[in-house]
Amino acid sequence: MTLTTERTDNDLAQVRRLVTNIPGPKSLELLARKTEAVSAGVGVTLPVFITKAGGGILEDVDGNSMIDMGSGIAVTTVGNANPYVVENVQRQVAAFTHTCFMVTPYAGYVEVCEALNRLTPGDHAKRSALFNSGAEAIENAVKIARTFTNRAAVVVVEHGYHGRTNLTMAMTAKNMPYKEGFGPFASEIFRVPTSYPFRDAPLSGLDIAKRAISRIDKEIGATNVAAIVIEPIQGEGGFIVPGDGYFAAMATFAKENGIVFVADEIQSGFCRTGDWFASSYEGVIPDLIATAKGIAGGLPLAAVTGRADIMDSVHAGGLGGTYGGNPVACAGALGAIRWMEEEDACGRAKAIEAVMLPALVAMQKNHPAIGDIRGRGAMLAIELVKPGTMDPDPERTGAVAKYCHGQGVMVLTTGTYSNVVRFLPPLTMPMHLLEEAIGVIASGFEVTS
Ligand code: PLZ
């Protein structure tokens, strides 16, 4: 297994090279057109317009080559334009692009469901259903859990993120920018405490689980709860890895009370954390798992996978949608999954952690603004605070990210308090680029205050 490639299959040199300011003149021209053509409601983190991507590189219209530490928010886990994905998609798009699986089906959909049933935790009988986006998968997981249990309440947790549709906005914790002005929101959603070790100390994950469970018992009533929906590692909430025992205790409570336990693995799934699914770190076998993002190497696809008795409790025709499990997206997913299995994607995520985590910990020693380093595999983050306090420092966080962008390193921020810099490199990231990116991030802390 080598992580150092000179050029990708789509002929992209694996070097960081800036030939203009970031963004360059051509990107700025396109940005002006974007402002005239695209709703102001659609924001952009870094307005460099991309023409080609692969390995660990994003190339823009001005000819700049940037290091991609974001994977389009944890999507291109197998690398952009991964050759397995490209080959499958090209073959499929030339054969047929759509029939609607609910009208006249095709094998690709079934094959993706078979792969999901095989790869998700637990060897019990499973079924899957395919959708277009993460939010849609979560919506459907809730529909399925409600039908199965004949109950209405849905429990979510602090800092949770589940999407931007009406139901998933209600399930998402953070107001700005996701919810502000978009209510009224769906009813029967209840938020309980989550484990956030950096901010909970000295309380343990189990302490917080007890608190959350007591809240469910006292304020909702366990017998009214259809589903508990939790991310095993919270993504938009700030890359929060819950304290030991929290996730498992919530799953056990669900099991004991006939509640469907739904793991939202949309950001953490598909080898991102060094395991196929992050639920496995706590030995949890969720009743249902929602997936999207990394599933199809960049094509829009999402799924709900889980216990056959739960998945089959829905009446025929109750689940679906025109495009869900589109044949081209399924072909992409089969390519991506094949690559993950053949190329030891989980091992690559662990190799990224082995290089990056100690480097971040070393950085922390020099910078009291770095309050916490956390994450698993290729899902790592830095939480910034005002030195000597626990107060979030979103301004410095933004400044570090901006510095990295200017130096040709694409990083994303996250967190309820917007004070977390997160790293989600594609698993095809060559080690020399990873090390270069780490160097730039370290300089980001030297030059900001
Ligand atoms: N659940 C855990 O991370 C998407 C959101 C970006 P969709 N996260 C990125 C943004 O600002 O919109 C996400 C997630 C978890 C659900 C979702 C929703 O997935 O495919 O964006 O609908």
From TrEMBL:
InterPro entries: 4NH2But_aminotransferase_bac, Aminotrans_3, Aminotrans_3_PPA_site, Class-III_PLP-dep_AT, PyrdxlP-dep_Trfase, PyrdxlP-dep_Trfase_major, PyrdxlP-dep_Trfase_small. GO terms for biological process: gamma-aminobutyric acid metabolic process. GO terms for molecular function: 4-aminobutyrate:2-oxoglutarate transaminase activity; identical protein binding; pyridoxal phosphate binding. Its cofactor is pyridoxal 5'-phosphate. The lineage of its organism: unclassified sequences, metagenomes, ecological metagenomes. Gene3D superfamilies: Aspartate Aminotransferase, domain 1, Type I PLP-dependent aspartate aminotransferase-like (Major domain). This is Unannotated protein. Pfam families: Aminotran_3. It comes from freshwater metagenome. PANTHER family: AMINOTRANSFERASE CLASS III, LEUCINE_METHIONINE RACEMASE. Belongs to the class-III pyridoxal-phosphate-dependent aminotransferase family. Keywords: Aminotransferase, Pyridoxal phosphate, Transferase. CDD domains: OAT_like (cd00610).
